[in-house]
Amino acid sequence: MMSGFTTKGGFLTVFGRAMHVQKLRPLLHFISMLAMTLFGLLLLTFVIGRLMPTDPVIAVIGDKAPEALYQKTYLEMGLDKPIVTQFGYYLNSVFHGDLGTSVRTANPVTEDILNYFPATLELATLAIIFGVLFGVPIGVLAAVKQNKWPDNLVRVFALIGHSSPIFWLAMLAIVVFYQHLDWVAAPEGRLSVMYEYTLPKVTNMVLIDTLLAGDWGAFKDAFAHIVLPASLLSYYSVAYLSRMTRSFMLDQLQQEYITTARVKGVSERAIIWKHALGNAWVPLITVIALSYASLLEGSVLTEIVFSWPGLGRYITDSLLAADMNAVLGGTIVVGFVFILLNLTSDLLYKIFDPRAK
């Protein structure tokens, strides 16, 4: 009897562990995919760094350094080692947070990225929030009013958003909203000089730091600086998300469960906003995540026009100065964020859509 009880208990224990592993499988798959994709990204950046025509030693010590210093630095950087060994050194440095030193700023690249990336993160986050708040309802309206004037208006709006150059819209917006209407602050960074050097830097995101400091004057000033570039970036998100929402909603509104709901007397408002949009949110998660990633990596021109000290501007200035450590370090960060958001959207897709399981 004891033996049977023990066998049964052991079976239940093994079964419980198997169920636990089954629940963790999506997370384990997520981690493994993240690791493999990140390895590929690091391999790609390493190869690019070695194929660039610039000499990595001269980029560090300058082209007027003596030959003895050149040879010493060459050995210290491990450039005399086999390429596989160099890649191993590169991986070890990256995983320890060492992305080299920027020639242009003379600071560690990691330190520069920690200073510049929060500005891009703040700008892109506010832009995607605006994009979702306006793009999704506009897309729903276009689908409900298919081939009527609201739908045609939304499609023209989306077409203009996709085809207009961002730098032209930015300069036009500065002339209208700053020069003539004086509704926003000057396109000169993230804060006025009177607040820039007195605000405590906790997260390096000025809206959050001003709230943490309880400085409402600085918060108002920070919002006046960010609202115009964020609105311009969000215009592209609104155009893209409205078009995709319209497409997903049209597909859902043609499904049989919509017809069944109408036959049962369900209100049109519930059919549209609860049932159809509820199912359309599943593919929209991926679209929103990819749109957010594009904002994080594609806001270079906006940052340049508005003198916004973000990562895109940092990478561009470093590229013009042939500062390859900074360029590759910034590329790694942007690539990692893109990979993380892409894989996160896949994980959320499986969570919210039972069919994907």
UniProtKB/TrEMBL annotation:
Q: Quote the cellular component terms of the Gene Ontology held in the record.
A: plasma membrane
**Protein's UniProt keywords contain Transmembrane:** yes
Q: Which residues cross the membrane?
A: 27-48, 123-144, 156-178, 222-241, 281-306, 326-349
MF GO annotations: dipeptide transmembrane transporter activity
The record's annotation in Pfam families points to:
BPD_transp_1, BPD_transp_1_N
The main place the protein resides is membrane
Q: Which family does it belong to?
A: Belongs to the binding-protein-dependent transport system permease family.
- This protein is called Peptide/nickel transport system permease protein
Q: Which organism is it from?
A: Marinomonas pollencensis
Name the lineage: Bacteria, Pseudomonadati, Pseudomonadota, Gammaproteobacteria, Oceanospirillales
